[in-house]
Design brief:
The chain contains 13 helices and 13 strands. It is of the alpha/beta class. Strands 3-2-1-4-7-13 form a six-stranded mixed sheet. The chain has a five-stranded mixed sheet with strand order 10-9-8-11-12. Strands 5-6 form a two-stranded antiparallel sheet. It starts with a strand and ends with a strand.
């Protein structure tokens, strides 16, 4: 593909289950990459779909296959609604991450549903998707995938931190992009906020009202994962096995949220060199108490960009990954995932 302007949709669904991010983007390749986000929305999940996605980790093979087809059709409906609402008729491709159900790279297995060939048929558009499977097959972690976009689109910042279901960060070191998952964030905080009748801890109000339980904080900070070297990545399996059993014995839910928020701040701050610039995106960027806690532990200069980038940076970058795949250029970095080599990952479906 020789032309340098790419009108695409970027589609992302994160582990925090807040909905499907859909962004209409123009990516431009001149001397370097640039972008313009024309429209972007988050479509909340129905309560039924949200429950099924949350429970899917316990499903058997047949149940997962049924959910995959159902979710693909659900995704297609939301994409078509977006295209129709904004009268979009010039797309090069729809670039979709899908929704992660299983992520077990140590078992050479990862599954993102919504990446079936039917998606291209249903929306009548070329689709680029399923970015993680090839990396795992090449002995990589299959995650994180965003760092190539951090390098190409946000390279002016020393660190790029995403605060979503999990915190992940990328940066340059010795002319290589380094990235890894730091710790779970909203998959844990939202879990306990729901017990207080809210979808999430708005602004960190629950954390602010609670008391940090120091022995529990020390137990969290001593978990083996935090002492492992990169590349490394996290999934819900790890959260279920390690985090909840430490937090659940705390009687007061606000104390749980306060303790875990402090844990997140400590783990992030540990990774930062003094006075460097830190770009923060993802839903956690709106948690002012968490951001303040990070700044209490680090002298890094925190930059929070405009809301559309905070909320839709991952959709933007998965759009870029799709375009790189169409150009047959590397979109997966072995320095990040630990794969055998850099490679151009994903599959392309045509209607």
């Amino acid at each position: 593909m020789n032309h340098q302007y790419y009108n695409v949709l970027g589609i992302m669904s994160g582990t925090s289950l807040d909905g499907i991010d859909i962004a209409y983007i123009t990516l431009v390749r001149k001397e370097s990459w640039s972008f313009h986000i024309h429209r972007a929305i988050t479509v909340p999940y129905t309560s039924e779909m949200k429950q099924q996605l949350a429970e899917a980790i316990t499903y058997n093979k047949r149940e997962v296959e049924q959910l995959n087809l159902k979710y693909t059709r659900y995704l297609a409906e939301k994409i078509l609604n977006f295209i129709d609402a904004h009268k979009i008729d010039n797309l090069v491709a729809v670039c979709s991450h899908g929704h992660t159900i299983f992520h077990q790279p140590q078992e050479n297995y990862t599954l993102q549903i919504g990446n079936l060939p039917e998606l291209a048929q249903l929306i009548n558009q070329r689709v680029v998707c399923d970015y993680r499977v090839q990396d795992v097959a090449l002995q990589g972690q299959g995650a994180p995938l965003v760092p190539i976009g951090d390098r190409l689109l946000f390279g002016a910042y020393d660190y790029c931190l995403n605060l979503g279901g999990f915190a992940n960060m990328s940066f340059e070191q010795n002319a290589q992009r380094i990235a890894y998952d730091l710790c779970p964030v909203n998959v844990v905080l939202n879990h306990y906020a729901l017990k207080l009748g809210k979808e999430y801890d708005a602004g960190g109000a629950f954390a602010k009202a609670g008391t940090i339980q120091t022995p529990v904080l020390e137990q969290l900070n001593s978990l083996e994962y935090y002492h492992q070297n990169a590349p490394k990545s996290l999934g819900m399996e790890w959260v279920n096995a390690h985090i909840f059993q430490i937090l659940d014995p705390i009687k007061d839910t606000c104390d749980i949220i306060a303790t875990y928020t402090e844990h997140v701040a400590v783990q992030i701050a540990k990774q930062l060199e003094p006075e460097k610039t830190l770009l923060i995106t993802g839903g956690g960027a709106f948690n002012t108490y968490l951001i303040e806690s990070i700044s209490m532990h680090s002298s890094a200069k925190i930059i929070i960009p405009e809301a559309v980038i905070v909320e839709h940076k991952e959709a933007l970058i998965f759009a870029l990954l799709g375009v790189l795949k169409l150009r047959n250029e590397n979109n997966c970095l072995s320095s990040v995932t630990g794969a055998d080599r850099d490679h151009s990952s994903g599959v392309i479906y045509v209607p």
